[in-house]
Amino acid sequence: MPPSPIKAVIPAAGLGTRFLPATKAMPKEMLPVVDKPAIQYVVEEAVAAGIDDIVMIIGRNKNALANHFDRVTELEHTLERKGDHGKLAQVMETSSMADIHFVRQGDPNGLGHAVLRGRKHVGNETFAVMLGDDLIDARDPLLPRMIEVSQRQSATVIALMEVDPSQIHLYGCADVETTDEPDVVRVKGLVEKPAAADAPSNLAIIGRYVLKPEIFDVLAHTAPGKGGEIQLTDALEELAADETIAGPVLGVIFSGRRYDTGDRLDYLKSNILLALDRDDLGPDLKSFVQDLASSFD
């Protein structure tokens, strides 16, 4: 049986300070990755997983997000008059791909607080949380597997990925034990950005979660943690420590293609890698990159 449809929460209230001054007036989620804003990749991933009801948690100066997924009739009419049906289809698709709602976070109190702001829309149902800094290649679907595991085992599920131990201090890290499924582990604990010597594994938490509604009550009493903010990791740590709250916390280990757009260098790499895979851009870009690389020899 295919997984039952669920809703998705996409936190998008961050200030994007790593990309200043570009993000002074434009949301970081609207920065283009090749020729689409990063947030559109995330919505497309949700839709591909069978999700058509999405709530975005936004802050001030994020109106561009709502505008992008709204209709722009003047643009549609212009493209129609020009006979540019390809671009017209692309423009119209963004306003019809999903039912997208917007909720203000208000005070910027962290990821956990942003997720909590989605409570009224989600209700008492399991839901997905998708972070915009992590783009998952459409050829390597992750979310359907996470939803299937969550529903079959009545579990909270987080996405994990093996990273070089020298990089684990950049991530939340999972302490795990194996299960009878090679790509699924039981999460015993979570550590936020540990030193390599203190890390319980090299399994990093990446920005996909399938959460049971009990997480909301946990977040409601979670005290501010790292950075003085309400951390989703802290709430997940509580669930992992006490399975009577909402059942087990499981991790799905992802080994596919992931693009990190969270900092400037990785953002540039993501643009190049995705463009190289495009039939319309890849061949010419590959030649350019090869020529550029040879010029440094």
Automatic annotation (TrEMBL):
Enzyme class: transferase
Chloroplast keyword on record: no
SUPFAM superfamilies: Nucleotide-diphospho-sugar transferases (SSF53448)
Pfam family for this entry, one: NTP_transferase
GO molecular function (one): UTP:glucose-1-phosphate uridylyltransferase activity
Reactions mediated catalytically: alpha-D-glucose 1-phosphate + UTP + H(+) = UDP-alpha-D-glucose + diphosphate
Domain spans labelled Nucleotidyl transferase: 7-269
Domain of life, per lineage: Bacteria
Protein keywords: Nucleotidyltransferase, Transferase
EC number: 2.7.7.9
Keyword Metal-binding carried by entry: no
Family named by the database record: Belongs to the UDPGP type 2 family.
Name this protein carries in UniProt: UTP--glucose-1-phosphate uridylyltransferase
Organism of derivation: Microbacterium profundi
Gene that encodes it: galU
